[in-house]
Amino acid sequence: MIKNYVIGDIQGCYKGLKRALKKANFRPAKDKLWAVGDLVARGPDSLSTLEYLYDLGPHFETVLGNHDLHLIAAAYGISEPKPQDKLQPLIKSKHFSKYIDFLLKKPLAVQPMKDVLITHAGLYPKWSIDKAILLSQEVESILTGPKPEKLLSNMYGNIPNSWNKTLEGYARHRFIVNAFTRMRYLHHDYSLDFKNKSHPDHAGKEVLPWFLAYNPKLKAKHTLLFGHWAALLGDIPPQKPNPARIVALDTGFVWGNKLSLYCLENSKIIQFEE
Ligand SMILES: [Mn+2]
Predict the structure, then answer these.
(1) What confidence score (pLDDT) does residue 249 get?
(2) Distances from the Cα of 120 to the Cαs of 29, 33, 260, in angstroms?
(3) How many CB atoms lie within 10 A of CB 43?
(4) What is the CATH classification number for the domain harbouring 239?
(5) How far is ligand 1, taken at its centre, from the CA of residue 28, in Å?
(6) pTM
(7) pLDDT for res 237
(8) How far is the CA of 181 from the centre of ligand 1 (A)?
(9) Could you tell me the distance, in angstroms and rounded to a whole number, from the CA of residue 36 to the centre of ligand 1?
């Protein structure tokens, strides 16, 4: 039987990626690997990571994370790669433009199967899964269009921090990108908080994690998989208002913790630690 695995933030940890896949008995010619984004940056070998994932062909799919978008923006000269991201070997590679074209075609939200959603940061609680896919497609159509740099040069910034369906143009796209790739906490009016990165035990009462904000569209049959939030270490409080299965897959491998994979067929988590 073909298995679908969803992997947490790889962040250039190529050796860890290969070892985690071995531990999961991932069969590259048969199974499919899905990623929550942040394939690159911070870890030691973003180039080998992209080489390997690209070569998986139809056996790999990912959503974009904030670090992937930064890399694309850097390729267009819009953002400056940070030394601590260790991206120079990738940027200097003769195949760099091939990998940028590859990333530009990736969505912000994807459904590996019915009732399952993968995003980098999560599902904004005013959106259903179907709405998330439509909003992802709005951004995708620009990134795959003739002028992706127009969106890339306007995507940075924290305003607007609240969703309104009447938002248009860059303000609309900026909110969509921020919600899918940077969200962790919300204020009680459901506006995005961009400051707090801590574990919910230490966040205070002014903010709540997005997955603890009630989303009337979520049902028990739904599964949401996301990364981005290493401080959670995979820990979602059991007392939550949403009946969906919510799985946090960034378990901080690049910071010396674990790399997590979730098998969609048996709902089991496999973790690799060095
Ligand atoms: Mn991230």
Answers:
(1) 98
(2) 25, 15, 14
(3) 24
(4) 3.60.21.10
(5) 25
(6) 0.97
(7) 79
(8) 6
(9) 9
